[in-house]
Amino acid sequence: MDALQLLVPLLALISTYEWRSVSATSNSTCSELDLEHFKLLEGESFYFVPYDLDHPNSPDENFTWYKNGLEVENITTDETHETHHHGGALFLLNVSTADSGSYTAKQTTPSGNCVTHHVSIKVFNGSSGEDLTYGAVKNSKLNKVISCPSPVKSTCDVFKGKFTWYKGANLRQGEHEAKLRVFNATEEDEDIYTCVCTWTHNHHVYKTSGSRRLIKLETNINRDVQILSPNNKEQLADEGVGIKLNCTIFCGTNVKRDCKASWHLNNKEISQMTGYNQATTREIEEPSKNTYSTAILTIDKVSAKDFQQEFVCKGQGLYTYKETTLTLKQRESIIPLAIGGVCVFFICVLAATLVKCFAIDLALFFRPYLHQCRHNQDGSVYDAFVIYETEDLDEDAEDKLLHFVTVALPSVLEEKCGYQLFIQGRDDIPGEG
C-alpha cells in the first residue's frame, strides 16, 4: 500500500514533466509576433484584437489565452467573468490595477500552424498623473481634425457604441462622431481632448476612452526667395586686409525650415576653407514673423587671387532658389589724393597771404583793366574829394603839402589809376579841372 501511494505521485510528476516538455517544444515551433503595449484607465473596459488577426471570431478552441506571471492563469470563455475571451478577442471589463500584466494568446490556424500573440497592459488610476494620451494633433492648419484613438474607435465600430467628446473635463455638446473638428482654432482651443465610447456587451454597459492633446502651431507661409544682400555686383576691398561679405535672404513668414543662405566659391559651398570662415543664422522677426537667413563670409586676408574669383550668394527656400554673384575690386590708394589735397591747401594759403599783404597793390595793378568795365550808375563826377588845411603851417610845410596834393597825388590816382579827384583850390575855381 505504501509503495502504491508513492508510485501515484511519481507517475503524476512524470506526466507533468512530459506535458511541460511537450508544451515547451510546441511553443518553440510557434511564430512569435510583436508585443503590443496599452495604458488603461482604472474602471474602464478594454476590448483587444491582435493587430494581425484577420478573423477574431474564430472558434474558441483555436485560441488559448492566458496571463503571464508567477503562475500562468488561463483565461476563460465564460462571459460572466470580467476577464474572458471569444476566439482571438480579449475582454477586460471594469479593469483594475490588478489586471496589469502581460497576456498571451496561442492560436492554432486551420492549416495546423501555431502563432503566438502578445500584449502588455498597464492600468492606472485617475490620480496617477500618468500621460495616457495617444498622440498629439500638432499642425499649423486653421481648422483642426482630432481623430478618436484607434482602440476606442474599433471598439465602438464592433459594438455599435456611441461617441462623446470632452475638452479637458468639459463635455462637448452634440459631438458624436469618430472625428472632432475644431474650426478657426486659436491658442484657447489647446487642451487634451478625450474620446469616450459607450458600448454594450452581454447586456451590460461599458466605457472605453482615449485622449489626444491639441497643439496649435503658428501658421507659416513660404514665399519666393528674395536676396536682400549683396545688392551690388562689386565690393571694394584692400589686399592683405580682412573683410566680411554679407548674404541675406527673405523666405516668408514664420518659416522654421527650408530657408538657408550660403556663400559658394568655385561651385562649392564655403565651409571651413583655409582663410575663409562662414557662419549662417536664421532669424524670425517679431512681431511680423518675417523670416531671414544670413550667411557671413569672413576672409582673414584678401589675396590677389580673391580679386579674380566670383563669390556666389545662394538662397534656398521651400519652392524657389536664387543666387547672385559678387566680385571684389581693389580699392584705389588714398596717397595721391592726400598729396593733391595738401598741395591745394598750401596754394590756397599762399593766395590768401598774397591778397592779405598786397591787397592795395593788387587793386591798383588791376585798376586800369577794370576801369573800362566800370559802370557809373549813381551819376557822380568825382571818385574822391581832397580837402586840406594850410592854416598855422610854416612856408616849407605848406609847400610840401601843396606839392603832394596837387602834383604827387593826382599823378598816381588820376594818371595811373584812373580816379577822378576833386582837389580843393584846384577844382573849385571856375575854368579849372
From TrEMBL:
Q: Which domain of life is it from?
A: Eukaryota
Keywords for the protein's UniProt record, in alphabetical order: Disulfide bond, Glycoprotein, Hydrolase, Immunoglobulin domain, Membrane, NAD, Receptor, Signal, Transmembrane, Transmembrane helix
- Ig-like domain spans which residues? 9-122
All copies of the TIR domain together span: 380-433
Q: Coiled-coil regions in this chain?
A: none
Q: Name one GO biological process term.
A: signal transduction
Query: InterPro entries of this UniProt entry?
Result: Ig-like_dom (IPR007110), Ig-like_dom_sf (IPR036179), Ig-like_fold (IPR013783), Ig_sub (IPR003599), IL-1_rcpt_fam (IPR015621), TIR_dom (IPR000157), Toll_tir_struct_dom_sf (IPR035897)
Q: Which GO terms describe its molecular function?
A: hydrolase activity
Signal sequence annotation: 1-24
The record's similarity note reads: Belongs to the interleukin-1 receptor family.
Q: List the protein's name.
A: Interleukin-1 receptor-like 1
Name of the coding gene: Nfu_g_1_005815
